[in-house]
Amino acid sequence: MQPKATSTVGASRADLSASDLEFVRKLIRDRGGIELDADKGYLVVARLQKVVSALSLGTLDQLLAELRSGRRRDIEEAVLDAMTTNETLFFRDSHPFPTLAEKIIPQILADKGTDDLTIWCAAASSGQEPYSLAIVIQENFARLAREGKVRIIATDLSPSMIERCREGRYSRFEVSRGLPPEYLERYFVPDGNDYVVKDSLRSMVDARTLNLTGSLASLPRVDLVMLRNVLIYFSAQTKKEILNRIRTLLRPEGYLMLGGAESLVGLDTGYERISFDRTVVYRPG
Ligand SMILES: C[S@@+](CC[C@H](N)C(=O)[O-])C[C@H]1O[C@@H](n2cnc3c(N)ncnc32)[C@H](O)[C@@H]1O
After folding, report:
1. 3-state class of 15 per DSSP?
2. What is the mean pLDDT of residues 230-249?
3. Are 48 and 60 in contact (CB under 8 A)?
4. Any atom of ligand 1 within 6 Å of the Cβ of 279
5. What fold characterizes domain 4-82?
6. What is the 125 CA–ligand 1 centroid distance (Å)?
7. Cα of 171 vs its chain's centroid, Å
């Protein structure tokens, strides 16, 4: 008998056979480059159940049958979206943001010799990272912000996260994670139980869906790429391919920044590692 990944939903019990789990893992790998752990079947079941409910598909078996038929692109998209892990917070890891303001961005502007800047948040999730950057720009480069010289492109594989990013609406809990109270006051408007970003901030962020495993041709040349806490989901080969494509997009004076716990060690990508105080960035070689 095949081992089953199980979860209990309401009164009914939902199971996923080993071959179903493998089918879903392959689909997610092929479509999003994401490697789902084979021993996290319970997580896959829980996330699939959400799609069953959201699309009123009745049962997990019906969802799997539709997926296997390949007829319903919308279901495939919803499953891919549901399999993404979107954990994020404002000013994540803290130290990169003052270093960006005081050292990295001034260095880029000096090396370029111009006063325009294009930043790409390549796994923006629900928007806390691009809005943190927009605040850094407003606070430290007010003239550039006023004159519309800074463009922040926020992309993510997940359409639901990009929708949230565009909306810029955050719960009390979300704004309590990493956002200093004075910035909440200055850049957000309370609305019911939520806080919504002011237009001055939202207008700096251009949010769109983009799959990092696909073509980057829709993007302009960029000065700074924030590729934080996303490479962990990919195989070494996929990481290399993505990093190579990003290199062709980065201007020679630009930098790539990864998440606080990530590095390019062992990937042989040809980027040069540079430290600005505690913050590590990579220059295209
Ligand atoms: C853990 S979040 C990181 C958010 C933010 N960068 C941070 O550090 O707080 C990872 C994000 O990567 C996105 N992602 C996963 N695979 C992707 C892919 N192939 N292309 C683009 N985004 C992807 C997920 O949808 C998710 O929102």
Report:
1. strand
2. 96
3. yes
4. no
5. Chemotaxis Receptor Methyltransferase Cher; domain 1 (1.10.155)
6. 6
7. 19
**Nearest-angstrom CA–CA distance, 38 and 106:** 45
Cα(230) to ligand 1 centroid in Å equals 5
- Copy the structure tokens of residue 139: 């606070």
Higher pLDDT, 14 or 134: 134
β-partners of residue 207 are 154
For 77-133, write each residue's pLDDT tens digit: 999 999 999 999 999 999 999 999 999 999 999 999 999 999 999 999 999 999 999
Residue spans in the chain of domains classed CATH 1.10.155:
4-82
Q: Which atom of ligand 1 is nearest to the CA of 259?
A: 8
ipTM score: 0.99
Domain 96-283 fold: Rossmann fold (3.40.50)
Residues of the chain with CATH 3.40.50.150: 96-283
Instruction: Tell me if 213 sits within 8 A of 32, measured CB to CB.
Output: yes
